Amino acid sequence: MKVIHDLNEIHTQLEFARRDSKRIGLVPTMGALHDGHLSLVKRANDECDISVATIFVNPTQFGPNEDLTKYPRTLEKDLDHLRQAGCSFVFVPAADKIYAPNHSTYVEPPTVANRWEGEIRPGHFRGVATIVLKLFQLVPAHIAYFGRKDYQQLAVIRAMVDDLNIPMRIEACPTIREQDGLAMSSRNRYLSSEERKRALGLWHALCRVQELVNDGEDRVSTLNDAMQSKLKDASVDSVDYANVVDADTLEPLERFQGQGVAIIAARLGKTRLIDNLTLSQSSSNSNYDGCRDDAQGGAD
Ligand code: PAF
């Protein structure tokens, strides 16, 4: 595995690989890697000749009151994980090389960025779209892999790629869950053991919606109320949103008519978690393994 810090070097090496007809898979990350990230690397390895992970804690996607300075930085451990996962290249640029002091160009994010995270975290998707476009320029990959856990981020990146005619295929990969259903996230490490127990309320709320849909409920107001009530039962500290929305536009729905995704953002102490579940009208939702105590990872 080659670890590269220099912007020209990563680009040149991968241009050579492309000339040799190698297929390149890109996995952008901010480090603090967990099995969710490693599943993306595995997918890139399965589908491409060369896998490239990037590790960069992107300052422009954090708001002034967010956790940029506290964000976990675990580079040596991350490199060990990536080595074990068989990653070919890791690109770890320095912040001042990505954002030179005179940097002033940003991507105006697409409409799908407006609600939910976009409303609660102003400027977040501008930062995400900007860094992702930069990484796409620096790492000339064929396919980029993103987790469905950040559902709105995925929608924003897909729209940006379409709107700006970026020659990159975007692959969405399943959310990886802990045994009990909690979605893996770099932020889970902030949770105290008591908060960790309450955090399971997000998954239980999502499961409840799928159960109601299985029973034929299609009124989204009822589905949203059910999520709120499950989150309340779990004593999460606050709920930023818990809504069933259109799977493509992320606009609120009135009726569930076969397609939709339940999205949640909630806070446990100082930690803010997001999760989602793509809903299915058929009783067997491959994204959902039920909310049993022994629920296996890998849903959605
Ligand atoms: O999902 C993340 O880890 C980040 O938002 C990303 C896509 C690497 C951009 O910084």
Give an overview in words.
The protein is an alpha/beta fold. It folds into two domains: 2-176, HUPs (Rossmann fold, 3-Layer(aba) Sandwich), CATH 3.40.50; 186-293, Pantoate-beta-alanine ligase, C-terminal domain (Pantoate--beta-alanine Ligase, Chain: A,domain 2, 2-Layer Sandwich). The protein is built from nine helices and nine strands. Strand 5, helix 7 (151-163) and strand 6 (169-173) form a beta-alpha-beta unit. Helix 6 (124-138) packs across helix 7 and helix 8 (193-214) packs antiparallel against helix 9 (220-233). The longest helix is centred in the last third of the chain and has 22 residues, at 193-214. It is globular and about 55 Å long. The chain binds pantoate. The site of pantoate (PAF) has 10 residues, from strand 2 and helix 6.
The gist of it:
The longest helix is centred in the C-terminal third of the chain and has 22 residues, at 193-214.
What's the overall average pLDDT, rounded? 95
Name the overall outline.
globular
Radius of gyration: 19 Å
> Span between N and C termini?
30 Å
- Helicity, as a percent range: 25-40%
CATH architecture of the largest domain: 3-Layer(aba) Sandwich
Key features of this structure:
single chain, 300 residues, alpha/beta, Rossmann fold, Pantoate--beta-alanine Ligase, Chain: A,domain 2, 2 domains, binds pantoate
